[in-house]
Amino acid sequence: MSTTIAEPMTPAEPIAVRVWVEQRMVFLELTDGRVVGFPADRFRRLKQASAEQLREVTLELNGFALRWEDLDEDLTVPGIVAGRFQLPLERSA
């Protein structure tokens, strides 16, 4: 009798295949099909950015990071998916 021991699977880091901005919300489509969105105002530099500047986002490092060249801002996709933001969510009145 032979026994096979399964190796524990290590979860893969989330990777984005697409990024876009709608009304100050940044959206990511991940390789597993999920769509994740966050308010741009959760990051200091993005909060100060114009709508046009926000739309100038690109995917970098094979989908591992977001880059806003004019703002000199880089965010990692795993950090976003994990909910690591610089600023608290502002509550509407």
What are the segments in which pLDDT stays under 50 over at least 5 consecutive residues? none
- Calculate the mean pLDDT score and round it: 90
Strand content: 25-35%
What is the count of distinct domains? Answer: 1
Q: How big is the Rg? A: 17 Å
What does this protein look like?
- The chain is α+β, with helices and mostly antiparallel strands and 93 residues long.
- The protein has a single domain, classed as Uncharacterised protein PF10387, DUF2442 (NE0471 N-terminal domain-like).
- The chain is 15% helix and 32% strand.
- The chain is built from three helices and six strands.
- The chain has a three-stranded antiparallel beta sheet with strand order 1-2-3.
How are the SSEs placed, and which strands pair?
Layout: E1 16-22, E2 25-30, E3 35-39, H1 44-47, H2 51-55, E4 57-60, E5 65-68, E6 73-76, H3 77-81
Antiparallel strand pairs: 1-2, 2-3, 4-5, 5-6
Summarize the structure.
The chain has 93 residues and is an alpha+beta fold. Helix content is 15%, strand content 32%. Strands 1-2-3 form a 3-stranded antiparallel beta sheet. A 3-stranded antiparallel beta sheet has the order 4-5-6.
